[in-house]
Amino acid sequence: MSVRLVIVDDHPVVRDGLRGMFVEQPDLEVVGEAGDGERGLAVAVRERPDVVLTDLRMPGLSGAEFIRSLAERVPSARVLVLTTYDGDEDVLPALTAGAIGYLLKDSPREEVFRAVRAAAVGESVLSPVVAARVLGRVRTSAAAAPAELSERERTVLALVARGCTNKDAAAALFISETTVKTHLAHIYTKLGVSDRAAAVAAAYGRGLLS
Prior knowledge:
Domain HTH luxR-type: 142-207
Order of helices and strands: EHEHEHEHEHEHHHHH
Number of strands: 6
InterPro entries: CheY-like_superfamily, NreC/VraR/RcsB-like_REC, Sig_transdc_resp-reg_C-effctor, Sig_transdc_resp-reg_receiver, Tscrpt_reg_LuxR_C, WalR-like
Domain Response regulatory: 4-120
Helix content: 40-55%
Keywords: DNA-binding, Phosphoprotein, Transcription, Transcription regulation
Low-confidence stretches: none
Mean pLDDT: 87
Oligomer: single chain
CATH superfamily of the largest domain: Response regulator
Number of domains: 2
CATH class of the largest domain: Alpha Beta
CATH architecture of the largest domain: 3-Layer(aba) Sandwich
Shape: globular
Protein name: Response regulator transcription factor
Strand order of the largest sheet: 2-1-3-4-5-6
Strand content: 5-15%
Structural class: alpha/beta
């Protein structure tokens, strides 16, 4: 069964290039594309893709706003960022908003293919530069932060590590999304982080997740 993919990028040449790349992969099918977040959201709502491959800085919605809106409107779609921007002001908001992966546009095509396949099954993929930034933030805050998580907090964090959205986690645990958000807020405080990706990285680093 093929992975259904939507491409969102404001440069037509980039979209054409990506579409041409994916044609070579029989298990990866481009079902739509858009040049900005608003159109991208409409296409994703219509097509219900498995993965949305998106740039960050585009006309209209910011990258984080687009990712957040997509998580609300099409929670089954995994968002994989493909961009030239690797600063904290881009990486961290995107991951916090719900992106499951973050690649740079100089990534080899095989790495992009692997990342799309991984995202489709809920696995996080970060480029080495981005991973270094996230882990750097974890190390900076790890020493002073307490790390005693309750059993329910560990369960929520394990679901997040598997790529579950707040809605997915709520459904799996038979609780409300608000309760999931509350658990995540407590987890962030205890681990000394401020986003999902950093929380997962910190938990693995401290042996809280296996």
